[in-house]
Design a protein that fits this description.
Length: about 80
């Protein structure tokens, strides 16, 4: 086995391990139910600006040290409350 082949195999192993770790972290965060406002808008099927309008209508957003997050449960609650 040449050094070049060994290096390529090692790079492949490292790349796959990093991709797997990133996917696991992403799924853990998404599965927690907390989304960024952009992700929340996508989840709700509306634009970011519409989501901001919903905030004025009572949609609750969590903000800690300037970081804003919204829960899927809150989006679902808001839509259920405003359904007719």
């Amino acid at each position: 086995m040449t050094v070049e082949v060994a290096t390529n195999e090692l790079e492949d192993i490292i790349t796959k391990a990093v991709q797997k770790a990133i996917q696991a972290a992403h799924h853990e965060f998404i599965d927690s139910g907390w989304l960024s406002l952009k992700e929340g808008a996508k989840y709700a099927g509306v634009s970011y600006n519409t989501l901001m309008k919903y905030r004025t209508l009572g949609l609750q957003v969590c903000e800690i040290d300037g970081v804003k997050r919204i829960s899927r449960k809150e989006i679902d609650r808001f839509f259920q409350e405003h359904s007719f």
